[in-house]
Amino acid sequence: MMDKAGQNGLIKGVRMSDELVVAHLEFADDFVVFTSGDRNDLLNLKLLLVAYELASGLKANLAKTKVVHVRGCEERGVEAAAILGCKRGTFPLKYLGLPLRDGRLAREDWNCIIEKCSFARDGWRRLLEKAEFSLEENQMLVEKDERIRSLVTQSKSSSFLIFFLLFSACEVIARASVHHVGDEKLTHLHFYFHEIDAGPNSTVVMSVDLHKNGTTFGNIGIFDNTLRTGPEPSSALIGRAQGIGVHSALDDKTGLTTINLVFTAGEYKDSSLALLGLFKVTGESDRSIVGGSGRFRLARGYALSKLVNSTTTTLVVEFDVYVKHY
């Protein structure tokens, strides 16, 4: 719509060269319109905004819109704001986070860019550490950051230089995200979950026990059960299953659990997996792996479990866990 308006001479725009006339700039919902300040230009722009609202069903937010005049008398800026029904603004201002003036930018105008680059640098460094970058590549990032600071501080040219520098920094981020992470692998874990429901060694506490309407609906249990290599209580201990179980179904047949499988022995000692999903009173339960720590960072997958033994005070659940990790 704006392109057509410019082509048809409804909005004159700003002539940058013999072949280039800029009438507007647009990025997402940030919009800048350049006009000569002529009354007809402004009225045409007002009509275009009304036409846009009618055609799209959306409303132009003039309360967040400002008119800034670059040259000419003060009265023209006042008149433009009155015609468009918006506020007046003055230089210096920002567009897409970049400083703008009606003349050459001062050195202090670049401070906001330097601060943003410095703030982002900490995040880049953490990303590099997680990706296990070598010392040489870490040094490269530091040197690149210092070059950014030096160039921005000394720059007195146009703000397009900033875009170039930020794109250059994005290259480093992309390398940290893609490389040196390692190959993803699928691991199958098989173990048994042992729970003691009563007695001095109980591993479960009912923090909420409502007994409402003769059902367990609304009850909440907190548990710290053992993980063992076999169904026998004497089998080797490999970790703990710590979490919360909520009786979230009216029919008492399912519930919601969040479990942290903490491994304390074996190949995955000091690592953990986070599970979330429904457990079934009967049959096989299928829950999602939503994360992990240690050897299981960036983990995803699923866990299948089924009851294999139960008494009045204990139960044993068999787990098969399939996890993808690096």
Known CATH architecture of the largest domain:
Beta Barrel
Which band does the percent of strand residues land in?
25-35%
Multimerization state: single chain
**Count of discrete domains:** 3
The helix-strand sequence is: HEEEEHEHEEEHHHEEEEEEEEE
Would you mind describing this structure in some detail?
The chain is of the alpha+beta class and 326 residues long. The chain folds into three domains: 2-90, no CATH class; 107-178, no CATH class; 185-325, Beta Barrel (AOC barrel-like), CATH 2.40.480.10. The protein has helices at residues 2-7, 39-56, 74-84, 111-130, 135-154, 160-178; strands at 14-15, 21-22, 24-27, 30-33, 66-67, 87-88, 93-95, 98-100, 185-196, 204-208, 220-228, 237-246, 254-263, 272-280, 285-293, 300-310, 314-325. It starts with a helix and ends with a strand. 17% of the residues are buried. Residues 176-180 have low confidence and may be disordered.
In short:
The chain is α+β, with helices and mostly antiparallel strands and 326 residues long. 29% of the residues lie in helices and 33% in strands. Residues 1-100 form the Reverse transcriptase domain.
